[in-house]
Structure formats: structure tokens, C-alpha cells
Amino acid sequence: MDEESVTSVGLTTSKAPRMEVTTMLCKEICEDCGKLFIGGANAYFCPECRIRRQRESAKRRNLSQIGINARKKKRGDNDA
């Protein structure tokens, strides 16, 4: 074996330039709008729907905090 050597797990290593690891992108279908988009293996939503869902989630979190503060104020807690 001139330029290569075998490692303990059977992989060969050589002095040749290494190939970079690339991510596997494929065509996916958005579960919200049904639009076809390019995404990774765990992508379920297109970029537009993902942004919309993140905004909605942030609004729900903020509104729930406002509701908690309003209930504390109504009960008479001084922390609100």
C-alpha cells in the first residue's frame, strides 16, 4: 500500500485532498401550505411558513405573560 493506510475500522486514509461533507438537501413539501421547497431531512415547513409560525408562537408567549400579569393584578398580588 503505497499512499494509503488502513485504519482499525477498515477505512482508508490517503494523502489525497479530502472531500468536504455536504448536507443532503432534497425537495420537501410544506405541511402548512403544500408548497414544494428545498430543505434538509427534518424540514417540515417552507421558510415563509416557518417564519410565520415563529412569529405566532412569540405572540402567544407574550400574550400569555400579559394574561398572567393581569390575573396577578386582579388577585391583588404586588408582583405584577
Note down, in words, how this protein is organized:
It contains one helix and four strands, in the order ββββα. The radius of gyration is 26 Å and the shape is elongated. It has a domain at 46-80. The protein is an alpha+beta fold and 80 residues long.
Major beta sheet, strand line-up: 1-2
- What shape does the CA trace take? elongated
N- and C-termini, Cα separation: 75 Å
Computed CA radius of gyration, to the nearest angstrom: 26 Å
Low-confidence stretches: none
What is the averaged pLDDT score? 78
Q: Percent of residues in beta strands?
A: 15-25%
List the helices and strands in order. Answer: EEEEH
Per DSSP, the total helix count is 1
Number of E-state strands: 4
Q: From the helix content, strand content and strand pairing, which structural class follows?
A: alpha+beta
Main pleated-sheet profile = 2 strands, antiparallel
Helix content: 25-40%
